[in-house]
Amino acid sequence: MCCDSKRRFLLLYATQKGQAKAIAEEIWQQAGAHGLEADMHCISEMDKYNLETEKDPVVIVISTTGTGDPPDTARKFVKKIQDTALPPDHFAHLQYGLLGLGDSEYMFFCNGGKTVDRRLQELGAQHFYDTGFADDCVGLELVVDPWIDGLWLALKEALLLQKEKEGMNNVVDAVTSSPSPAPHVVHEVNLSSEVQNLKLEDEGARNSDVPSQKLDDINLLDPARNTEPSLVNSVPPVSQSALNIPTLPPEYIEVQFQGTHGKNPHLSSLISEETTFEVPVTKAVQLTREDAIKTALLLELDISDTVFDYQPGDAFCVICPNNTNEVEELLHILGLSEKGDDFVCVKVKQGTKKKGASRPQHIPERSTVKFILTWCLEIRAVPKKAFLRALVECTSDAGEKRRLQELCSKQGASDYMRFIRDSNVCFLDLLHAFPSCKPSLNLLIEHLPKLQARSYSVSSSNLYQPGKLCFVFNIVEFPACPARPTSRKGVCTGWLAELVAPLLHPSKNTLNTKGENFSTEKIPIFPRPNNTFHLPTDPSVPFIMVGPGTGISPFIGFLQHRQKLREQHTDWEFGETWLFFGCRHRDRDYLFKQLRCFLENGTLTHLKVCFSRDSSTAEVAPPKYVQDIIRLYAKEVTRVLLEEKGYFYICGDKKHMADGVSDAIVDILSMEMEADRLEAMKILAMLREEKRYLQDVWS
To answer: Which residues belong to any copy of the FAD-binding FR-type domain (predicted)?
Structure first.
């Protein structure tokens, strides 16, 4: 602990994809400008800090992953503090402030942060600063920026109180510039639409090696030329404002080119803890008609030569590459077209001012440039403001430089949300929009996040189809827009669709000697077991499944598994099964019309379907959505859930479906139980707690 103890605070972060770490680094960088020193560590590095003896204030930045879990880096920490043997005053000496990151599109918003916050409180720790919960759905910065702005005064007062307790009033001036110290209070931060301005002081600029710059003396463009704001065009008041821009992040990566001799690492080295398998695609079927709004594909993988195991309801991940054309385009813009196959050595830059700098785990020490851009970096990621700030220094055109400054400034916050975040503008789009911006490869490695494997629900049963794994997906489409001149397909779904095109549209070259389609293409996968989204262990327990569109995917596996169990155990008692399915058109995107086979053989007891875009001549219009058709079976749903202690499963889109289904269940329970809505919500919460109301949803 090398920091000056008179003005030190402990800064811990727990991250899954790097956002919590980036925010912690921003706090660490700003601390110096406020006369403070942050002792920063990943929360997993428990050998480098000790909360049991910590006297200084603690700041924690923590994200949420999965279905409300703390990130992987926080698992050991959470397990440690959840020890039931700890006394209620275990952390009575501790003062802390916590910033939680989450996404309100998911049910357990910021639950990672809430779990840690709640447990620290139970063990006697005290807030010196109000907890903040930042929502990635609307923009983390809307909460993060004002939370950091208010942190410094709260920290200084917490340190002041600490010194007073120690009888060290003579050193108070070392931690506060205020001539008359304010009383110790817990600061409440306004986390709504009001964002405070943070003026970057000269000292902060000097600490980051950035010359102080008056940004309002750079004119962007002639205002008369275009009065409409856009990604590249600014209008008053932003175009005429003095700007408060973030501190320039210190560079910390060095890239050395080493020629074309060598071998790229295996893809399994990119995955930290999982076992990867390269498996062939043996079957591909288009489930939707050509005129359907979305194109859904079913792929079958052969896992017979692996030890890959799964249960219906589990998920698995596909390790996918970036689009080849986009990688080539990026190489061209970066001036590296001739060096794509050159090997580079990536290491930490000597003398960097970044604390605890290390080579990102997802970047090999030695590989080709093309390998890094294809398999390691998420080049479709929406650029963060810190990245925009770094790109300013790589831009030669004064107008483009000014616009990038605006987009990362506090004054340009709404422009950033509108033209970058909400428009899903990626790094490549940005380089097209600002052609004088020529960043180096090391800057991409420093700022672009890891290319994440994509998760899919299993749509099969190993009992029903031994050695096979099936999954279903829609090919994601991003339409063209002003900031994106051409449409794009999803990174993984577009790659998979291209990969299996020979199976979907066979030619003589893709037929074997028996005239059957075959494929030699393999895809790398690894398991992602689901601890709860499984069939009831007791087969006599009834259950209800709700899965419109591709949300039906895991339930095909459920039904296949149930059918096989019924065939193998004719003496067992099996509970009734309900499936609510919906799509737009009966004849275009009814994905699994063979559901009727499950109905006919008794595996499925009740099948209820609805079609939202089909016209009807009936006097009473049929229900359009699954939440509507569920309401028609209120008594049956209540009986299954409350009288027979059954299970309720939902899979699919959260915002437009799962929330509507939850509302329908609350209304049903309220009506059937003759209870008010609040009581019905408590019953639903009880079902969630008992793991009988289960969701596998996405935004």
So the answer is: 274-536
